[in-house]
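Entry 14. Two folds queued back to back today. First construct below, sequence then structure tokens.
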Amino acid sequence: MGLSVFASLIGSMPFLPAVDLPIASEVSIPQEFSEETSDSILPEDDLEELLLKDSIYEPKPVELEGSVENFDPVARAQALAENLSRKWCGSYKSFGNTSDDLEVTINFLKINPVGQMVNLEGNMSIENILIPIQGNLNAKSDQLDLILLSDQFIEGIEPGDYFMGLQGINLLGLESTSFIKPGGRLELKQICQSKISKTPAIRSIW
């Protein structure tokens, strides 16, 4: 009985006809493109030429503000070789010695420019002890290395020691090869003043 009732209910229900429903449709966007528009587009070369003609901008070389380094160390080395004083006088003071300063005289016998370097050859007199020397002066940085070519032992100075300066020849420091040596300070000037011997006072017997 139950099946007959269900069948009668289904037979009495109306059915809708099957209709195909579109799931997605393509939307077409019309593109208006006429022959007149295509003809108005200029080639890339003609467009660049037109822009250059119409532009008021004139390309100019880039100029950087501020000073530009025009220092020539090679030319300065040549000038130093010509004008550098051949004789220097001063004193040496050992950092580890409380004695008086030692009198120093330097005579450069050869001064030759090589690139931006100035080669120096001559001798150094320390308390009347003559020592051959050889050095290099950097015309760009003013650094000077002065090597002592001697095996003599002088107060506070041993064989293998050398002088180094960062301000040219005026002020040098002793670079010792020994770690226990404190080094020293060498001050030089271009003007050499000879010692003036004092004449002993003469007392009159009258």
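Second construct, same run, same settings:
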Amino acid sequence: MSSIRTARMSPGWVLALVFGGVLVGTALMGRNDTRAAEGAASGKKPVVAVVDLFKVLNESRMYKDLKERLKDSAEKKRAEANRREETAKQAQKIMEAFKRTAPEFREKFKTFVDSAVDYNAYVKLSQAEQILMLNKGTWEVYQAIVETVHAVAKDNGVDVVLYLDEFEPNLQDTQQLLAQIRQRKVLHHAKDVDLTDQVLQRFDADYRKSASK
């Protein structure tokens, strides 16, 4: 019988799927279609700003707290997985102490199989739960950030907010580099139209207020 190996829980890769290619386009809250039409008719140029969504996400207190909860959950699940794995190993050791022809072997074999199945099922379920927790939590953080973007844009008289995507170029892979270039949303912006720091500061402040209630 081969020994049982613990599966690694690593849901962090899901972030690339959740936020890949995100483009935030938002109008000021409270402006209706009539007002927008009036602005277009008068020749008023829309005011555009940018926000580095990933910077706000990664540096926000809300997202850091989510990662802490994920870490705690993963540690508890890992401890329980280790306990179940040890149970299965002990059952295997007891089973192997009997000859296959022994009357007790069938019962010991069943105990081992049941414990091994239980361990593997628990690991798979734990991985799925961690990924779901990460995805749901990340989506909630994203939605909260967008609400803050709306508020900051309104305060600054901004009509449209674009997603500013800073990245490290992949110089080892031509196709990956071209894909990165194709996915750029903002090629130029003046420094004073970057609302990232304002959004981050307000987002953290609002989060602290809600957490203290």
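Quick look at the second one. The longest helix spans residues 105-155. Residues 1-37 have pLDDT under 50 and may be disordered.
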